[in-house]
Specification:
Layout: H1 15-25, H2 32-52, H3 55-84, H4 89-119, H5 123-143, H6 148-169, H7 172-214, H8 224-233, E1 243-252, H9 254-261, H10 263-280, E2 286-291, E3 294-302, H11 305-320, E4 323-325, E5 328-330, E6 333-341, H12 348-379
Antiparallel strand pairs: 1-3, 1-6, 2-3, 4-5
């Protein structure tokens, strides 16, 4: 169940989880930096191997190259979903792990290769190795700094072995190199911590402002703006094998409740209705309040139109159960109109209008059937 547009996470979850989701999204924002690193490392690998012709360099370098290529492929495959779809905290954890495994794996292999190069008697190779390691570390801070655990582990894995081997050489130049690299490493980790705190605070403020702008203050459901954004962002999910249903729902009997018991009871009733609608839809669907006693539900990933009918029945049944507000027991019902489409070019406003028209027809047919029954019952006397 989705309560707001995907770019703001899922407000049904705690704010801390929503912040976490947004920070995980940042891991997939760009692939360009990773492509640059692939080219730089490939050049480093080729130059070092040509200079030394060492089998260990070949094995570690090839493994590192394949691991970084896997990191790019993971980002390429998942990027569209991560940046456009609604992500819950549980899925965000899986996405973070999917990113972290090849990323940290490459850092470990880079650190191992650089340390091995430092163990060889080739100062020019040492110079090239430390340049590549420090360049990678700079990319870690700027690219994945919003996930300090991944960033910190990658920094230590990449730079730590070089520092250890440089200290082990015990010459003034290499000890100085180790000390300078250590200073940069410590500074980088401190920068990570400060940057994470700033970004986390900014993300909290942004999510709160997005929630206020895109949610209904009475029911905490998304409003029309959030519904529109969610529909537009997920239009790519609509296809011949992935239908979307638009349900337009309004309440029967709400106005008499409002008139008889007052707006406070009416507002409470609307909030209770919103809770029931949330509970009736699936994860991945969205329910929004359009205004007054009118609501809309978007239902994605359908294979048959009958699935939309089942949800419509479930929504109506959920509202049909009596509501208890204080000492009052209130019974209302819901009418619903549904339209199903497989055309991703359909406009949400048109779909809502069509669903509303079907709602009107359903109400008219119900009223005509009721009038016919009353007439028949009257004719029996």
């Amino acid at each position: 169940m989705i309560v707001i547009s995907s770019t703001a996470g899922n407000p049904a979850e705690p704010l801390s989880d929503r912040v976490y989701v947004e920070l995980v999204r940042s891991l997939y924002e760009t692939i360009a930096q990773a492509m640059y690193m692939l080219v730089v490392f490939a050049m480093f690998f080729v130059l070092i191997y040509r200079a030394e012709g060492d089998g260990t360099i070949l094995v570690i370098g090839t493994a590192a190259l394949l691991t970084w290529a896997a990191r790019i492929e993971v980002a390429r495959r998942l990027r569209a979903r991560v940046l456009t779809a609604v992500i819950h905290s549980r899925e965000a954890r899986r996405l973070e792990v999917a990113f972290a495994i090849p990323y940290v794996g490459f850092a470990i292999l880079l650190g191992a290769l650089a340390a091995y190069v430092f163990s060889l008697e080739n100062p020019e190779a040492h110079m090239l190795a430390i340049c590549v390691v420090m360049g990678f570390c700079a990319g870690v801070v700027t690219g994945v700094g919003r996930r300090p655990q991944i960033a910190g582990l990658s920094l230590l894995a990449a730079a730590g072995p070089c520092i250890a081997v440089a200290f082990a050489r015990a010459t003034p130049i290499y000890v100085g190199l180790a000390l300078v690299t250590t200073a940069y490493l410590v500074g980088g980790i401190q920068a990570l911590t400060m940057r994470f705190e700033i970004v986390q605070t900014e993300t909290v403020k942004r999510l709160l402002s997005v929630t206020l702008a895109r949610s209904d203050s009475l029911t905490a459901l998304p409003n029309r703006l959030a519904l529109r954004e969610y529909f537009d962002e997920n239009a790519r999910l609509i296809s011949a094998s992935g239908l979307v249903a638009v349900h337009y729902l309004d309440l029967n009997g709400f106005k008499p409740v409002n008139d008889e018991h007052g707006h406070a009871v009416g507002d409470t009733l609307l909030a209770f209705v919103a809770d029931r609608l949330r509970g009736a839809i699936r994860s991945g669907d969205i329910v929004a309040r359009l205004g007054g006693d009118e609501f809309a539900v978007l239902q994605y990933g359908l294979h048959r139109g009958e699935e939309a009918e089942l949800l419509a029945q479930r929504l109506v049944s959920a509202i049909a159960q009596p509501f208890t507000i204080g000492t009052l027991t209130i019974a209302i019902s819901a009418a619903i109109g549904t339209v199903v489409t497989n055309d991703r070019n359909d406009d949400l406003t048109i779909l809502l209008d069509e669903a509303d028209a079907r709602l009107y027809l359903a109400k008219r047919d119900r009223d005509e059937a009721r009038a016919a029954r009353n007439a028949a019952n009257g004719g029996l006397h």
